[in-house]
Amino acid sequence: MTDKDTKSKQTSQKDDTDVVMGEKEETEQEKIARQKKERSSIYFSKDAQLIQRAVHQQDDRLMNRALRQAFAQRSKLTKSILTQLSDTLLSHESHKESQAKLKEYLSKSASSDQMETDSQPEQSTPTPSTTTPQQPKQVLPEVEAFLHLLTVLFLIDSKQYQVAQQAANDLVESLQSQNRRTLNLIGAKALFYYARTYELLGNASAIRSNLLNALRTSSLRHDHYGQNVLVNLLLRNYLQDNLVDQASKLINKTPTVDFRSNSQLARFYYYKGRIKSIQLDYSDAYNCLMTAIRKAPTNSAKGFRVAAYKLAIIVQLLMGEIPEHNVFSQPQLRSALKPYLELTKQVRVGELLKFKDTVDKYADVYKADKTFTLIQRIRQNVIRTGLKKISTSYSRISFSDISQKLHFDNPDDVELIVAKAIRDGIIDAIIDHQGKFIQSRETVDVYSTTEPSDAFHKRINLCLKTHDEAVRAMRFPPDANKQKAQIQEAEERRKRQEELAEELEREDDDDDAEEEF
C-alpha cells in the first residue's frame, strides 16, 4: 500500500469519527431538551396532585399554593407540555370531550414549541433522577379547570388573543354551572383572565353586564374570592371608560367585601384612591393610595407600585404638601418618577412659568399615565406657594409687583387671588384696596398654635391604623377555634383526674388511720 492510499484511508476514518461525534453531540442536546420538558411536565403534574389533595382536605391554602407554584412556572408552558398533561390527566372516558377541546385550542395557536425539533420523538423515557408520578384515571373537576386555565395562560402569552378569548369564555361558563366551594379560587383566576382577554382585544365594555351578573352570583354563593376579583374588575372597567360616578356608586352600594388576598386589597385601594382624587377628596385619596403601596409586594409588581406612587405624588401636591425626596430616589422607581420629580421641584419653588414649561415638556408622559387632568389643578397650588413665599419675604408689596413676580397673564385678577389665599389661611395679611397692596402681619410662633399637636395626632392615628390592619391580616389555621376548645377541654379533663386522684389518695389515708386506731 502506498503512502497516498494510507493518508486517504486515515482521512476517511477521521471524517467518519467527526460524523459520529457530531451525532453524539446532537443527541446530547436533544437529551437535555427532553429532560427540561419532562421536568416542567412533572412540576405541573405535582401541582395537579396538590390540587387534588387540597380538595380532599378542604384546605384553600394548599389550593393557593398550587396555583402560585404553577404561575411561577408560567414561562415554561409549551404546546407539547399541555398536550402531554391533557393526555395523562384527562385519559378517562368521562374527560374525552374536555381533552378534545383543549387540543382544539392548542391546534389553533400558531406558536411553535422551542424545545422540540421535527426529528424529536413525541415521548421519551424519563431520566433515572426524576420519575413521572402516577396519575389517577379519573380526575376531579378542579384539575380539569386547572388545565383549562393553563391553556388560557399559554394562549395569552403566545398572543393568540382570539383563541384565548374563546377558551376563557368556555372556562367561565363551565365554572359558573358548578357550585363547588373548592372551585372558588380557580374560578376567581379564570374570571380575571377572562376579562383580560377582552381588554387585550379592546372590547372590555362588552362584558360589563356579565361581570355584574357574576358578582351577584358570587355574593349569593358567599364566594369571597370571586367577589374580590369581580369588584376590582368592575372598577377597572368603569375607570377605563371614565365612568367615575358608576365606579363610586359600586363602592358605596356594594356590601363590605372580605378581601382574602393582599394583592386584591391593594388593587381595590388603588382604584378607590383614583376615584377619590377625581372627586376632589384628596385626603381620603392619599390614605387609600398609601395603603395600596403598603399592601403591594415589595420585590415584585413594579408597574403597580410605579402607578400608585405617581398618583400619590400628584394627590399630595394637590393637598399642598411636598413629597419627601426618598420617594424619588428608590432604585427601581427613579427613572419612572423623573417627570414627577421635575414637577415637584417647580411646585416647591412656586415658579408658575417654569411649571408651565415642565408640564408642556412631559405632557405626553402625563397623558399616558392619565394624570394630566389632575396636574392641571396643581396650578392653583403653585400660585399659593408663590404667594406664601412673597408674604414671608415682604412686609408690604403691591399687586403689580406680585403679578410681575408670579407671571400672571391678567394683573387685574391678583386682588381676587390674594383675597382667596387669605380666606383659605395660606397667607396672613391685610389688603389695602385703595393703595392696591397687601400688608403682612407679624409671624406668630408656630408652637403657640395647635399645629404641632395636630401633626402628632395625625401620626398616632396612622400608627394605630397600621397596627389594626396588621392584626386583621394575620392568618390562622381554619380549625384554630376547635383546636383551642380541644386543648381547653383536655386541660379541664386533666385537672378533674388530678382532683379525683387526690380524693382517692385522701380516702386511702383516712382508711389507714381508722385501721390503726
Any idea what the radius of gyration is? 35 Å
User: What share of residues are in beta strands?
Assistant: under 5%
Model regions low in confidence, pLDDT < 50 over at least 5 residues = 14-25, 111-136
* Number of DSSP E strands: 3
Report the sheet with the most strands, covering strand number, pairing sense and barrel closure.
3 strands, antiparallel
Oligomer: single chain
Q: Give the end-to-end Cα distance, rounded to a whole number of Å.
A: 129 Å
Strand order of the largest sheet: 1-3-2
Number of helical regions: 22
Indicate the mean pLDDT: 76
Shape: flat
Order of helices and strands: HHHHHHHHHHHHHHHHHHEHHEEHH
Helix content percent band: 55-70%
The structure class reads mainly alpha
Family: Belongs to the proteasome subunit S3 family.
Biased composition (Basic and acidic residues): 490-499
Protein name: 26S proteasome subunit Rpn3
GO cellular component, one term: proteasome regulatory particle, lid subcomplex
